[in-house]
TrEMBL record:
Residues 250-273 are annotated as: Disordered. GO terms for biological process: enzyme-directed rRNA pseudouridine synthesis; tRNA processing. It comes from Motiliproteus coralliicola. Its EC number is 5.4.99.26. Keywords: Isomerase, tRNA processing. GO terms for molecular function: RNA binding; tRNA pseudouridine(65) synthase activity. It catalyses: uridine(65) in tRNA = pseudouridine(65) in tRNA. PANTHER family: MITOCHONDRIAL RNA PSEUDOURIDINE SYNTHASE (PTHR21600), TRNA PSEUDOURIDINE SYNTHASE C (PTHR21600:SF56). Residues 13-173 form the Pseudouridine synthase RsuA/RluA-like domain. Responsible for synthesis of pseudouridine from uracil-65 in transfer RNAs. This is tRNA pseudouridine synthase C.
Amino acid sequence: MNEQLDILYLDDDIVVIDKPSGLLVHRSPIDRRERRFALQLLRDQLGQRVYPAHRLDKPTSGLLVFGLHSDAASRLQQQFRDRRISKTYHAVVRGYLDDAGRIDSPLSDKREAIEKGGSDQVRPPQSALTEFRTVDRVELPIPLGRYSSSRYSWVELKPHTGRKHQLRRHMKQSAHHIIGDTRYGDGKHNQLFRDQFDNRRLLLFATQLCFEHPFETGRWLQLDARVPAELQPLFDALSWSRLDRHGVSDIDPPEQFLAEPSEERSSDIGNSP
């Protein structure tokens, strides 16, 4: 039987799935060995072509939007560029993060030669803004390094720009690395979660999207994705409630989108966190 993706929303123009961790959005020269892609799986499942409106990193799970025709994808991509799509993520990070705050730190964008077909190209650092809110914290009686215990936070992250790997890099900059991040994370804490909880994935989840339907003017949608059920034992061990909102609802336009779009544009809005 062909693999079936979890479809949260489907109409004549768009489809939204809950992408599992470990699945690439589409073919990429960065991972030539991979043979599974959300684009192809969804195409086969629906029996028609689909067009990605944005991307998520392979290890990140959660909400991923496709157009069912190129015009729908183009209009959604424009909303991402205009920053008129609200994106919310949740993550498990090392340490006790502040109750709330923002990380306003520019990020450089070094593109691998394999992506560009030539030498590495580096642009000047681009503005990058992430808001965060701590939902819960835990201190585990597990020694690590020079500490007699280990602290972790369950946090909500809202990127207002879309730089490459923005959330993972911003959390590294703040010394609150996302657990399971093998590129920007802290190996000691990743190992602790492997040993204690058998966790071998990135604990970063795209949990909510709010946007205006590309062909129904004034209709705003809110999509919510739950934290995967297989992580319930981990959340039980940490004494945290696992995020369980799942589905779609019509909403009033979010307040931040009632004003005219900002003149500032980001060419990287479609990039993954």
